[in-house]
Design brief:
The radius of gyration is 25 Å and the shape is elongated. The chain has two domains: 11-210 and 344-394, Crotonobetainyl-coa:carnitine coa-transferase, domain 1 (Rossmann fold); 229-319, formyl-coa transferase, domain 3 (2-Layer Sandwich). The longest helix has 24 residues, at 170-193. The chain is α/β, with parallel strands linked by helices. The protein is 39% helix and 14% strand. Strand 10 and strand 11 (346-351) form a beta hairpin.
C-alpha cells in the first residue's frame, strides 16, 4: 500500500524568487505539499528563470534546481483584482511564504495583520536579508553580503589571502531551511489553536546564529577567531587539510584517540607520547612544531593509500571536486541524485532532499513554466468559471 506523502493536503502560497526562498519551499514540495508559486508577470516572473549560463526560453537550470514540484500562477498584486485573487487563495491555503525585503510584507499586505482577516489560521512566513525590524530593514540582503556582514568572510581562506566567501550560498540555503522550519512550527501551532501568526526569519539572523560556539567564545572571553592555515580547526589539532603525494586529505581529530590512531598509522607512535603533543592543550601550544612534522609524513603517500589506512580509526576525507562528490558511492547509495523529466532539457539530474522519510516525492515534476498553472489553480482551488477568469484577465489581474 503506497505511503501517503507527509505533507499531502498542505497548501503554501510562495511569493519568492531567486535562491533562498525557493530552496526552502522545495523542502515542502519534496514532502508532498502543494506549493503554488505566485509570480509577477510584469517582471517576467522569478528572476532565477534568466540566470546564465544554462538557460532556454526563460527557463534556466538554476531556476529548475530550486522549483521542482511546484505550480506557477501569475498575479499582478499591484491591481485590486490581482489582490482579490490572492485573498481568495489565502482562504484556501495553510501558509503564505515570501522572501521579500524586510519592510515590504507589511507594506504590501502580505503579513498576518492583513491576510489573517481572510483566513484566521493562515501562517505568514517572511525570509528577508535583515528581518522586519532594525535599521537595515529596508535594505536588500544576498548570501555574499551576509557572509561578509556576519563575519564569515573574516574566517574563510588562508591567513595571508583576502577574505573569502564559502564556495556555495550557504547562508541562503541555511536561511531557507530555517524559514520553512519556522513555517512548520507556525502550522503546527495553528492546527492546535486555530490561529495563525507571523514568522520572521532573516539571513543575517541565520548567519549570526550559526556562529554558535565562536560567538560564545567571543562574547564571553573576548576571543577573536582568525583565518587558519590549511583550513585548520581553531583549537582541535590536528584537524585540517594536509597535502599528500598526489592531492589533499582532511583529517579531523576531535578525540584524543583519533590523534593516537593517526600517528600509529603513520608509523610514528613516538608522537603520541611526546609531551609536546600528547594532549589537545599541548598540541595547540606547539602547533608550529606539530603541523610541519605531520605534513612531512602525509607527503610520503598518495591520498587513497592514506584513506585506506585511516578510515575506521581516524575521521578523514578526500578533498573532492564537485563532480567527484556527486559520483561518490555513499552519495549514490543515499539516493541523493534524482531524475526529473523536462520538456526541453530532457532528463535532468538534480540533488535530492537530505530529509529521508517514507512517502516523500521521488519523481517530482519539473519547475513550472511562467503561469503554467494559473487557469488550473483558479478552477480547481477556487472554483472560478472560465468567464470569471477571462474577466480577470481583461482587468490585468494576471498581467498583460
Amino acid at each position: 500500500m503506497p505511503v501517503r506523502p507527509p505533507l499531502e493536503g498542505v497548501r503554501i502560497l510562495a511569493i519568492s524568487q531567486f535562491g533562498a526562498g525557493p530552496f526552502g519551499t522545495t523542502v515542502l514540495s519534496d514532502m508532498g505539499a502543494e506549493v503554488i508559486k505566485i509570480e509577477d508577470p510584469g517582471a517576467g516572473g522569478d528572476v532565477a528563470r534568466y540566470v546564465p549560463p544554462f538557460e532556454i526560453d526563460r527557463d534556466s537550470l538554476y531556476f529548475q534546481a530550486f522549483n521542482r514540484g511546484k505550480k506557477s500562477v501569475t498575479l499582478n498584486l499591484r491591481t485590486e483584482s490581482g489582490m482579490a485573487v490572492l485573498h481568495d487563495l489565502v482562504k484556501e491555503s495553510d501558509g503564505v511564504y515570501n522572501n521579500l525585503r524586510g519592510d515590504l510584507p507589511a507594506k504590501l499586505g502580505l503579513d498576518y495583520d492583513a491576510l489573517g482577516k481572510f483566513n484566521e489560521k493562515v501562517v505568514c512566513c517572511s525570509l528577508s536579508g535583515f528581518g522586519s525590524t532594525g535599521p537595515r530593514v529596508s535594505e536588500p540582503g544576498y548570501d555574499h553580503l551576509i557572509q561578509a556582514y556576519a563575519g564569515y568572510m573574516s574566517l574563510t581562506g588562508e591567513p595571508d589571502a583576502p577574505p573569502a566567501k564559502c564556495g556555495v550560498s550557504i547562508i541562503d540555503f541555511a536561511g531557507g531551511y530555517a524559514s520553512v522550519l519556522g513555517l512548520m512550527i507556525g502550522l503546527f501551532d495553528a492546527q492546535r489553536t486555530g490561529t495563525g501568526r507571523n514568522v520572521d526569519v532573516s539571513l543575517l539572523d541565520t548567519g549570526i546564529a550559526m556562529l554558535s560556539y565562536f560567538a560564545s567564545w567571543t562574547l564571553n572571553r573576548d576571543w577573536e577567531p582568525t583565518r587558519q592555515e590549511n583550513s585548520s580547526h581553531q583549537t582541535l589539532l590536528p584537524s585540517q587539510n594536509f597535502r599528500t603525494r598526489d592531492g589533499w586529505i582532511v583529517v579531523f581529530c576531535a578525540k584524543e584517540k583519533f590523534y593516537e590512531n593517526l600517528v600509529v598509522a603513520m608509523g610514528r607512535p613516538d608522537m603520541a607520547t611526546d609531551p609536546r603533543f600528547n594532549n589537545f592543550a599541548a598540541r595547540l601550544k606547539h602547533r608550529e612544531e606539530l603541523i610541519p612534522e605531520l605534513q612531512r609524513e602525509f607527503e610520503k603517500r598518495d591520498t587513497e593509500a592514506w584513506l585506506a589506512d585511516l578510515r575506521g580509526g581516524v575521521p578523514c576525507a578526500p578533498v573532492n571536486s564537485v563532480a567527484d562528490a556527486l559520483q561518490d558511492q555513499q552519495v549514490l547509495a543515499r539516493k541523493m541524485i534524482l531524475e526529473v523529466e523536462h520538456p526541453e532539457y530532457g532528463t535532468m539530474r538534480q540533488v535530492a532532499s537530505p530529509i529521508k522519510t517514507e512517502g516523500m516525492i521521488e519523481k517530482p515534476t519539473p519547475g513550472p513554466g511562467l503561469g503554467e498553472h494559473t487557469d488550473q489553480v483558479l478552477a480547481e482551488v477556487l472554483g472560478y468559471s472560465d468567464e470569471r477568469v477571462s474577466s480577470l484577465r481583461a482587468e490585468g489581474a494576471f498581467g498583460n
